Amino acid sequence: GWWGSGRRSSSSVRSSSTGGSGSSGQSDKSDQSDNVGPLEFAQQAYQGAGDMLRAYTDMREANWKNSDKYFHARGNYDAAQRGPGGKFVAEVISHLRDSG
What single DSSP character describes residue 7? Predict the structure, then answer.
């Protein structure tokens, strides 16, 4: 797979339910209900895929041995913070990584 050959733990996709504002500049959608409209879901999924891609390109630029698990977890976290759409795309990409 394009994320490396290591297996990830099943707990790497999590979203915060405690609230507060993050320092990443992203809106904290985890405090809101998971019921979003299809347009917002698609937007979150698109942005979440961008988060995953950014983590992947950062990993490639870092070129650091055995760092793939860190960057994959970071991409999962950033995407999941977008909301249900981001969480969905993070899970799909993670499953693709695991099967590849």
Answer: P
For residue 68, the model assigns a pLDDT of 92
pLDDT at position 96 over 60: yes
- Is residue 86 a contact partner of residue 32, using CB atoms and an 8 Å limit? no
All residues at 6 or more sequence positions from 75 whose CB lies less than 8 Å from its CB, including other chains: 51, 52, 53, 54, 55, 56, 90, 93
pLDDT value of position 33: 62
C-alpha to C-alpha distance for 57 and 92, rounded to whole angstroms: 18
Nearest to 15, CA basis, from 1, 33, 3? 33
3-class SS at 78? helix
Buried b / exposed e over 48-71, threshold 16 CB at 10 Å, is bbbbbeebbeebeeeeeeeebbeb
